[in-house]
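Appendix B. Raw example, untouched.
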Amino acid sequence: MTIHITPDDMRSTHSPEYAERIGTDPEVWRLSWLPERKLNRDQAYAGMELDELISDLTTAHDRLTHAQINALADAVGIVWEQAIIRLYKRMLERFAGDESEEGAPRPPLTGPRTVTHLFGHGGPRRVYLG
């Protein structure tokens, strides 16, 4: 994961989110996923790092990463739960945009979706997903 930085923006190689400088002041930035908040350059970079860590599903159960996410969210001025919700909503917006570009909505489910899981005891069991 890398964050590319220019004088006017920050872009991630791992996420479509970005940070950009606002106006002529080099110290006023905003994050694409937190647009209502004006940040300084260090906070914008922390927000980009936060996005990359949250987007990396391989570290979902890593306690050190959780601590780092908490510290970065604090640097941005939000709680980590709010950051996750914001980034999740942005992801949903992107997916909704992809659907509308195709012009055809997804077909409705004709029945409940199921999957067979192998449990440790008792063999396979059907699990209903909705």
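End of appendix B.
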